[in-house]
Specification:
- Strands 1-2-5-4-3 form a 5-stranded mixed β-sheet. Strands 6-7 form a two-stranded antiparallel ribbon.
- The protein is of the alpha+beta class.
- Helix 4 packs antiparallel against helix 5 and helix 4 packs across helix 6.
- It folds into 2 domains: about 110 residues, Beta Polymerase, domain 2; about 80 residues.
- It contains 7 helices and 7 strands, in the order H-E-H-E-H-E-E-E-E-E-H-H-H-H.
- The N and C termini lie far apart (about 45 Å).
- It is globular, with a radius of gyration of 18 Å.
- Helices cover about 45% and strands about 20% of the residues.
C-alpha cells in the first residue's frame, strides 16, 4: 500500500488537533511526526498525538475523533486479549493491492502513559501551525522507543530500532544546534523518572553509536 506523504501526515494531524481543540482539549505531536516538524529527514508513517488531559482515557479520545469526522474509524486489535481498538484515518486514492483504500494510523495517548510528560501548554512548540512536544522530551521518548524495540522479543519490533537510531542521531544534532539542554530550568516540569532512565539508555546508545557521544554531552548527559 502506498504510504502517506508528509503533507497527508500533516493534514491528518491538523484534523485531529482541530477536533480536540473544538472540544476544549489541547494536544501536541510527538514521535516521528514531531521529529519531522523539527527537521528530521525521514517521512513518518503515522501520527502520534498526546492529548493533554486527565478527564478522558485513550479509548474515549479515539471515539471522539470517530464521532466528529467520517475520516476516522476504529478497527479491533489483532491481539485477541487487547482491550483497545486501533484508530485509522482514511486517505485519498487507492493503495494498490486489490484496490485497498489508503489509510494512516493514528496513535492517541495521554500523559503518564509510556512516561509521556504532561507538557505545559506554554512549552508546546508551534511549528508550521502544528503543536509539537518540546525537543528534549521528544528526544528522550525517541530514545526510550529505541531501547524498547531493541529489547523486544519480536523480530518486527527489533527491526524498528535502526530507524529509531537514525531519527535520534538527526534529532540529537538538531538539539545541539539549538542549544537545548536536559537540565534547563524551563524543563523542570519533565518527569524525573524519564530523565533518570534516559541516563542508562544514553550509555547504551553511545556504545552502539560512539559518534553520538559528544552530542549527548552537549545536551547535558555527561
Amino acid at each position: 500500500m502506498r504510504p502517506p506523504t508528509f503533507d497527508e501526515i500533516r493534514d491528518v494531524a491538523e484534523q485531529a488537533v482541530n477536533i480536540f481543540r473544538n472540544h476544549g482539549l489541547d494536544s501536541c505531536l510527538f514521535g516521528s511526526a514531531a521529529c519531522s516538524l523539527f527537521g528530521v529527514s525521514r517521512t513518518p508513517n503515522d501520527v502520534d498525538l498526546v492529548v493533554l488531559t486527565k478527564n478522558y482515557d485513550q479509548e474515549e479520545l479515539k471515539q471522539l475523533l470517530v464521532d466528529s469526522s467520517g475520516d476516522f474509524y476504529l478497527v479491533p486489535s489483532r491481539n485477541p486479549s487487547a482491550t483497545y481498538s486501533v484508530l485509522w484515518c482514511r486517505l485519498p486514492g487507492r493503495g494498490g493491492g486489490r484496490g485497498r483504500s489508503r489509510k494512516c494510523k493514528v496513535d492517541i495517548l495521554v500523559p503518564g502513559v509510556l512516561n509521556i510528560p504532561n507538557v505545559p501548554w506554554r512549552r508546546v512548540k508551534m511549528i508550521d501551525g502544528l503543536p509539537a512536544m518540546p525537543l528534549i522530551p521528544l528526544l528522550l521518548l525517541k530514545l526510550q522507543g529505541w531501547s524498547d524495540h531493541r529489547d523486544s522479543h519480536r523480530a518486527d519490533m527489533q527491526e524498528k530500532q535502526y530507524v529509531d537510531a537514525e531519527d535520534i542521531l538527526e534529532l540529537l544534532e538538531i538539539a545541539v544546534g539549538r542549544d537545548q539542554e536536559v537540565r534547563q530550568g524551563n524543563l523542570s516540569w519533565m518527569p524525573r523518572r524519564l530523565i533518570w532512565d534516559s541516563e542508562a539508555r544514553v550509555e547504551e546508545f553511545k556504545e552502539e553509536y560512539p559518534i553520538s557521544a559528544m552530542d549527548w554531552q552537549d545536551v547535558g548527559f555527561d
